[in-house]
Amino acid sequence: MKLTPKKLNSFMLFKLPSAFICGVRAKTLNNECCVVTVKHKWINQNPFKSMFWAVQGMAAELTTGAIIISKIRQSNRRFSMLVTANNATFIKKGTGKITFTCNDGQLVDRVLAKAIKTKQGQIIKMESVGKNEEGIIVSAFNFEWSVKLKEV
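The structure corresponding to this sequence follows.
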């Protein structure tokens, strides 16, 4: 079964309700990239009237994790996956609608293929960049994921 933005959003409603309530929504998911948006509103703001950094982090993490989940499903193999590290840079106040994009689909293909071939856990370092409605970068997140093939 193919993973779609609609299925991701349904998954969030039931498994990641805080992200759903804060307005995190998947818009695009394909073999190359994932795009997620979140709009600044009262429920997700900080005391400085901009988007709380953790809400931006939820949206950014979803872009990276969704690609990995989608690629794992396509492989017809079972993997465990876990964020092992992350960092972020904040360039501008998060207001309005922020669009996070991760374009690391080919990287995930290579790393999963290596994990299958070697039967060893692998690390994937992925980036998600958030831009406001004017196309200006608001924040950039880097996530380090560990993936390991599960023995059947």
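The first strand starts at residue 25 and ends at 29.
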